[in-house]
Amino acid sequence: MSQDTVAPALPDAPREVVLVTGISGSGKSVALHALEDAGFYCVDNLPPELLPQFLRLEQARTDGAMRRIAVAVDVRSAHSLPALLPSLLQLGSEGVKVRAIFLDASTHALVRRFSETRRRHPLSTGAPGEALDQHRALTDAIELERELLADLREASTVLDTSQLRAAQLRAWVRQLVQAPAGALTLVFESFAFKHGVPLDADLVYDVRVLPNPHYIDELRPLTGRDAPVADYLQQQPEVGEMLGQIEAFLVRWLPAFEQDQRAYLTVAIGCTGGQHRSVYFVEQLARRFRGRGATLVRHRELDAL
């Protein structure tokens, strides 16, 4: 197609288009398989410049079926990645709603995964004759990939897979695509500081200063979802005060996040072990905000059990 040729607009957008991208080794294959199991028609490693044409071909199918589509794009198409964001903007102007999911992980987790699988990072070897690319250290390749994908990450819903098992990732991806499109979805996530702050968090609250049920023998094996733990925390005045302050902050600023055209806002609540206080806060906040729209609940440490 020449540069002067204007492609026809998509008359009817596919029912759902999910774009899966992210850092190599972060779990894109697992995510794509989860979407395939959920009924999506999946295409892996599609060159970004072909995305609009692919969707037009989908609309031209003779049977007229409206399939849910998932497309994976990664740094293997590095030379054409600059074309991806303009393509997403173009599709948006044509009425196509694309959910962009960016999978990320800590460098430490990525290095461990590449070492375990003995796979070569796609940027660790360059074109013939590029000796520096061929000998680039794995960590340098990962950081280069982060730079190449930075703009795409900014425009996507980020999912941190550093601490996730494959089953968790599959479940979280299904959660994301089941949320209603077109409105801000609030994601409340509990985590343990000892395992690191989630990379996908937009807002992070530290509740380690609050009384810890871990030090009460009968509460130690329980979680923040259990009634005895909830009853104990509800009796602590500072717990109610902090919960009310977090709720007030979100009520005040949610309209601004919605006006910013965000699809998801992840509110991460952390405590020491990710079992009692943070879990309780996430459950309470999700309950209080459920009437305002779509909410998702994640317990990073509990879901891993």
How many β-strands, per DSSP?
Answer: 9
Q: Portion of residues in helices?
A: 40-55%
Count of individual helical segments: 11
The overall pLDDT average reads: 85
Order of helices and strands: EHEHEHEHHHEHEEHHEHEH
Largest sheet: 5 strands, parallel
Estimated share of beta-strand residues? 15-25%
Alpha-carbon distance between the two ends: 52 Å
- The outline comes out as globular
User: Which structural class do you get from the secondary structure elements?
Assistant: alpha/beta
**Strand neighbour order, sheet with most strands:** 2-3-1-4-5
Unreliably modeled segments: 1-9, 127-135
Query: Rounded to an integer, what's the Rg over CA atoms?
Result: 22 Å
Write up this protein.
- The protein is globular.
- The chain has 11 helices and 9 strands.
- The strands form 2 sheets. The protein has a 5-stranded parallel beta sheet with strand order 2-3-1-4-5, with helices on both faces. It has a 4-stranded parallel beta sheet with strand order 7-8-6-9, with helices on both faces.
- The termini are far apart.
- The chain has helices at residues 28-37, 51-59, 84-93, 107-117, 131-134, 138-154, 166-178, 227-234, 237-259, 277-289, 300-303, and strands at 16-22, 41-43, 68-72, 98-104, 157-160, 185-192, 203-206, 264-271, 295-299.
- It is 40% helix and 17% strand.
- By secondary structure, it is of the alpha/beta class.
- Helix 1 packs across helix 7 (166-178).
